């Protein structure tokens, strides 16, 4: 079994601090998704008339999955504060689902834009966003999983400094 693990977060802070930062980032992503869904819902009648079925499905999947940022962020922050590796484990599985689905939706949308329109820059940028989501999301998961492993081993508690 391959076990990707790091000793510090990429910004140089401890895994605990990095996991809290990642948790706050996920909370903010969930909040922005909530505002997006609310804004979309207020213009629902015109949006339903103007967009195709594929766009509606992509928007629905993206919004629902991105809204999972709230529980993921809460699990990460609470897992660090209460030193509960099981909470981090649940958050990691949810985060993995989000990373896979969001990356797929961005890449699929980018390919659709490249094929269906004359705007290759937008399609390429959308594909790039999908790849970047996969790369950063995977690294975030590795950081949180590293802390989870340390907490399970008893080496990642509050009194432990790397």
Report on the architecture of this protein.
The chain is mainly alpha-helical and about 160 residues long. It has one domain (about 15-155). The protein has 6 helices and no strands. Helix 1 runs antiparallel to helix 3 and helix 1 packs antiparallel against helix 4 (about 70-80).
In short:
The chain is mainly alpha-helical. Helix content is 80%, strand content 0%. The chain has one domain (15-153).
* Gyration radius over CA: 18 Å
Number of helices: 6
C-alpha termini separation: 25 Å
Alpha-beta classification: mainly alpha
Please tally the β strands and state the result. Answer: 0
Please describe the biggest sheet, giving its number of strands, its sense, and whether it closes into a barrel.
none
What share of the residues does DSSP label as strand, in percent?
under 5%
Helix content: over 70%
The overall average pLDDT, rounded, is: 83
Report the principal-axis shape: elongated
Number of domains: 1
Tell me the series of helices and strands, N- to C-terminal. Answer: HHHHHH
Which spans of ≥5 residues are poorly predicted at pLDDT below 50?
Answer: none
């Amino acid at each position: 079994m391959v076990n990707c693990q790091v000793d510090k977060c990429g910004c140089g802070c401890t895994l605990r601090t990095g996991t809290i930062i990642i948790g706050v980032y996920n909370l903010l992503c969930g909040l922005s998704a909530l505002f997006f869904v609310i804004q979309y819902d207020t213009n629902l009648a015109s949006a339903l008339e103007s967009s195709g079925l594929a766009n509606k499905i992509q928007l629905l999947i993206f919004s629902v999955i991105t809204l999972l940022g709230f529980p993921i962020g809460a699990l990460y922050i609470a897992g660090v504060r209460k030193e509960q590796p099981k909470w981090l484990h649940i958050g990691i599985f949810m985060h993995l689902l989000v990373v896979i689905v969001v990356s797929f939706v961005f890449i699929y949308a980018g390919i659709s834009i490249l094929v269906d329109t004359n705007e290759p820059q937008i399609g390429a940028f959308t594909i790039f966003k999908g790849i970047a989501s996969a790369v950063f999301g995977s690294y975030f998961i590795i950081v949180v999983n590293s802390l989870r492993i340390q907490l399970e081993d008893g080496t990642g508690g509050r009194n432990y400094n790397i």
